[in-house]
Structures are given as structure tokens and as C-alpha cells.
Write the C-alpha cells for this entry.
Amino acid sequence: MSLAIRQVGDGVPVVFLHGFMGDGGDFEDVVSALGDGFRCVLVDLPGHGASPLGGGVWGVERMGRAVEDGLEGVGEAHLVGYSMGGRIALWSATRGRRRWRSVTLVSASPGISEEKARRERVELDRRRGAAIREGGLEAFLRGWYEMEIFAGLRERPGFEATLARRAGGDPEVVAGLIESMSPGLQEDLWPALGEIGVPTLWVAGEEDEKYVEISRRAAARCPDGVWEVIPGAGHSVHLERPGLLGRQLRGFLRG
């Protein structure tokens, strides 16, 4: 399928994969902070932004293959993924067909290992899908962004505009994706971290304690893993502290 992709700048390619309900434009401020010397490839994932969602069930593997197919014309590149996009990036780095120069995972998890926890997460995401269908997308989003991990994002000046933009999505598409992309359904990639043969940067916001610990543990399992914590940020590091993230990313990619 055809993905909506926008490229900014010239130089070494860096591919950016956004999170759930986002789009490639979420990384614009990070790209500005990254500076010259990079060709930034901003991808709208299937069912997000200007990229249509094909028929059937979309899980992490299918998303990953769609991204790899859509980047056929892009040379050897660095890969950056946030949250859901980070899960897709990690799948591509460990199970995909494409060779990356490096991988950066922002507020991302390798998956859920314990079977009971996996079942519980699948059920939670099914309830979320039902809530979207029954109560509408705007009401769901208000509750979604009340989660503590989004406290910093709620304080951001552009939050209401972001909320309004995402509330304009197709409720059935969003409901289907929250169910099919559930972390409880994806492969547990913790055992595969040792197979990543390129430098790997794990990033979390200091106020997102859960993902600070996940990223610390994950980086320690990667052969060439680096762990960084961004001060003054929660889960949405790329929106809350884009300048810091961009400069951190620049140092990693240049190094």
C-alpha cells in the first residue's frame, strides 16, 4: 500500500515513526532541533494522517512490513520510533527485512512477557475500542489524555489543537487500531533485543517512571545500547521537549 511520506532536508536519511493517533508532523520540532546534515523522512503510518488503512487486521508485523515496503526508495537510514511507532521500529530491527544504521526508541516497550498480563491488556484495549464506538472519539480522547503519563502534554500550549485534530479521525478506524495494535497481541521482543546488531538509543521522559525503567532494562540487553532520560518530560517526549530530544538524537547519530 502507498504511505504518505514527507522528506525534509538533505543528508543521511532518518526515518521517523509516530505514535497512536499521531502523524509524521508530530516530529517537526524535533527535526528543526536536529539541524542540518540529515534527510528526515516523516511517515504517516497506515490509518493515520494522510495514509489510508487497507482492509483486514493490522498488527505490529503488518505495520512494519508496510513501512519497509513504503521506504523502498530510501537508502540505508537511521530509524526513530515513538511509543506505537517504537514498537513497529523494534519489530523491523529484530524481525524485518531492512538493515538500519541505528535505531532510536522513544517511550517504547519491547512487549509484555507474562501471559496473564498479555490477556489483560488485550481485554483492556477491546474495552477501549468499544468505548470509542459507543461514546465517540472526542469523549474517549478526553479520558485517554487524562492519564498521568500525558500530564506534561496537557500543559503544552498546543495541546487543545492537537486534541481537536485527533478528534477529527474516523472512530471506527481508531477503535479497530487500538484493538489490533494492542501490546497484548504483539510478539514479545524482549528475548530478541540481543539480536539488534546496530547502535540502539532508548529514550524516556524522567516523569514517565514506567518507561524510564523499561528503557533502562532494554538498553542493557542490547549489544550496543544507550539509555537516556530527558528531564522535564513525560511520555510524549517528542512533543514536550522536542529541542532536547533533537539535540540528544543529533549527538547519538553523529557519534
